[in-house]
Amino acid sequence: METIISNVKIVNHDETINNADIIIENNYIKSIIKKSGEGTRIAVPGFIDTHIHGLYNYDVMEGSKALEIISYQLAKNGTTSFMPTAMTNSWKNILSSLSNMSENKVWYSRNLGFHIEGPFIGLAKKGAHKPEYLLRANKSKIHQLVKASNFNLKKISFDPKMMSLKTFDYLKDQWKIIGSIGHTDASYKISQDFFDRGCNMVCHLWNAMSGVDSRNPGLAQAALANDNVYTEVIIDLVHSSKETIHFTIKNKTVDKVIAVSDAIKPAYYVDGENISGDTKVFKKGKLITLAGTNTIAGSGIVIHDSFVNLAKIGYSLNDAVKITSYNAAKHLGHNKIGQLKENYFADIVLMNPKSLKIKTVYVDGKKVR
């Protein structure tokens, strides 16, 4: 059965079609028919979030029912593919959570595999991660994580001072897991050692890491200096200012920046006190902090917010698509998402051309909003 989306302005990372009809058949984009005139809605590829812990008062570590609700709410908000992201907790809880997550069978937003942030991070840049749960990585622990996730674990964010190069080789070569460096005060040299070994991702650049120093350069400088390294950026205008976002994109180029939400349980929920993991947090608007402190605990956004923010601070919609969808798909090696082209999955977000508010969302050709 065919579905026709008529009179839309298609915005991909590399081209804009001012008016077209999109023909969907069997979950895929069957054809795109170009037309004269101007489309009445903007169509962009579904957003991709590779670092998200929760939202709408649910956390991915709470099990399959929570994951089902999170995936539904993400899909409604335009995130059509995501990596459910667990975080530092007791080792027992991490393993049981990964196991419970692997049991979920209902996905409204596509599951790209699990991501875990921690527990292999040090005290220096722990951020919201509880110190009593921090661990040093080894092959046995990596194997336990993989097994608990039922082989769904695809990405680990870690401090290179808490993982040997041999252990990194093991997770990369044996299990094809993406290593993402973050939550660290590691020097430029230590960071470079891992980049030279094949690590090509940095966890939420600028946040919880060694920064820019003329005599003691750290991870941030190493990330900017290596052309093959991708960088997550939380484009909420809270974790990173407008000026920092401009600086990052200018130096990394638009091709190597990936927007992530790093959203946690209270995101898109009511303001006030909440619990994320077993940590007390406080939400006010898009800002979520550890309760009673100014320490940022996570974000309160979805990737659509990042898309809108990029447009507001002067980036073209094509560049916004690249940062919120295409780059993540390319980095993960998924060649059927991140673009609106024939034979790609019909993951489509339709927006008002002026306000950029979401009107309709399709995932695998199915209308979810």
Can you give keywords for this protein?
9 helices; six-stranded parallel sheet; Urease, subunit C, domain 1; 369 residues; 27% helix; seven-stranded mixed sheet; TIM Barrel; alpha/beta
Description of the molecule:
By secondary structure, the protein is α/β, with parallel strands linked by helices. It has 2 domains: 2-43 and 351-367, Urease, subunit C, domain 1 (Roll), CATH 2.30.40; 47-337, Metal-dependent hydrolases (TIM Barrel, Alpha-Beta Barrel). The protein is built from 9 helices and 22 strands. The strands form 5 sheets. It has a 7-stranded mixed sheet, with helices on one face. It is globular and about 60 Å long. The protein starts with a strand and ends with a strand.
Q: What can be said about this structure in brief?
A:
With 369 residues, this protein is of the alpha/beta class.
> What percentage of amino acids are in beta strands?
25-35%
Output the strand order for the largest sheet: 3-2-1-4-20-21-22
- Strand element count: 22
Query: How many H/I helical runs?
Result: 9
Shape: globular
As for the number of domains, it is 2
The pLDDT mean sits at 97
CATH superfamily grouping of the largest domain: Metal-dependent hydrolases
Low-confidence stretches: none
Report the biggest beta sheet as strand number plus sense, adding barrel if it closes.
7 strands, mixed
CATH architecture of the largest domain: Alpha-Beta Barrel
Keywords: Carbohydrate metabolism, Hydrolase, Metal-binding
Family: Belongs to the metallo-dependent hydrolases superfamily. NagA family.
Protein name: N-acetylglucosamine-6-phosphate deacetylase
GO molecular function, one term: metal ion binding
